[in-house]
Design brief:
Distance between the termini: 56 Å
Number of helices: 15
Helix content: 25-40%
Strand content: 15-25%
Structural class: alpha/beta
Radius of gyration: 23 Å
Number of strands: 18
Amino acid sequence: MPVFPKISLRPEVEKYLKDGFMNKEVVNTLGKAAAERKFETLLKHLSHPPSFTTVRVNTHLTSVQHVKTLLLDEFQKQFNGLSVPVLQHSDLEDVLLIPVIGPRKNIKKQQCEAVVGAQCGNAVLRGAHVYVPGIVSASSFMKAGDVISVYSDIKGKCKKGAREFDGTKVFLGNGISARSRKEIFSGLCELKGIGIRMTEPIYLSPSFDNVLPGYLFLQNLPSAVVTHVLHPQPGERVLDLCAAPGGKATHIAALMHDQGEVIALDKIPNKVEKIKQNALLLGLNSIKAFCFDGTKALKHDMTEDTQEGPPFSPESFDRILLDAPCSGMGQRPNMACTWTLKEVMSYQPLQRKLFSVAAQLLKPGGMLVYSTCTITLAENEEQVAWALSTFPCLQLQPQEPRIGEEGMMGAGLSLEQLRQLQRFDPSAVPLQDPDQDALRDATAEDMIQLANKDCIGFFIAKFLKWKSTSEKDPQK
């Protein structure tokens, strides 16, 4: 029985998703009952965190084994001697996996309560402490040092500063308050820092706050797969078209041994600063970050380049990563999404604009990888079908490493084309309930296989540009 309710969506959004997952091709293959069961299972999984925390080691500065040893020592301190394994992924040599223990059912709820916003609550479920800005409500008698129960306001209905809240809330565990209610809601100054230090979280995950900041990057498993699929080589010129906060750009640079040029674009200034900070922290010098709208990154006049930044000349990059802005419907844990159907559907046109730019910026013989962290058919397989019909110069390619499942039917792609895609589907395995005994008995191979399946919802497609964009197709 799931510990949390299924993700709460607007009725029209849930219907839109259901129509995609129960399209004619899927229903004809699985049967209506099985397709509906699979969809409902997916909605339940989305409200729960993945079974593993994934970190990518910055191999530019250190070895995976060294970081593994340091993490084992760190977790001994965090978990008061509790033995939690750190596994090196068998197909992703720079990725380490740490199992999440939970949901733990024997935590006693306290009289003193605090309510946090949904985004803060999601972070707590993945190992974070509660920072002051995330606290929405607290009991009137809460003092610093009190043991309190923490709840997530998953529908955003709690008023800031409330003394109690009887709306829909989900228990996240217990912690010790670092501030009194009066301090938090005095309004005299904007407080930052930890407001509640979680001591008994319902999901026991390691905290990575200031843990080995130059040596590792906290990243979802499929996000680490993407860059390996791109397979950048030393000396190449690579474009990360929507790069913030820089996880994939820094991964690209590390895989290239910091030799070559990685251009990272984002149109929001503070996000570009974050990319630069991460590159500096990880000791990577090949990254050049620019504040620029990716949809305008293609230079349309034929004048000679006089600057290193955007816009860029056509066919000037060896490889391009388009980790596209998306509806984010694959993120976990996510107990409620308040987006309207119009908002969810707004991403497909933007993704196509960005893809068109990427296809024209890619050199003949170059590779383009398209990815999203969403589960919708429209933003994934439908985009692949559109790209193949719009750009005859592109061909789908097999992917290595192969960790996700094949693509979902319903977009008119052939079975061979679907097999060349990777769709990470959180409903692929039953919801887990790992405890210490289960971890002790499981093999490393079994745990890695579970991590491959019980992760966020994600999608990857890889294209080869086999001829110039300007060349006409001889078959037409």
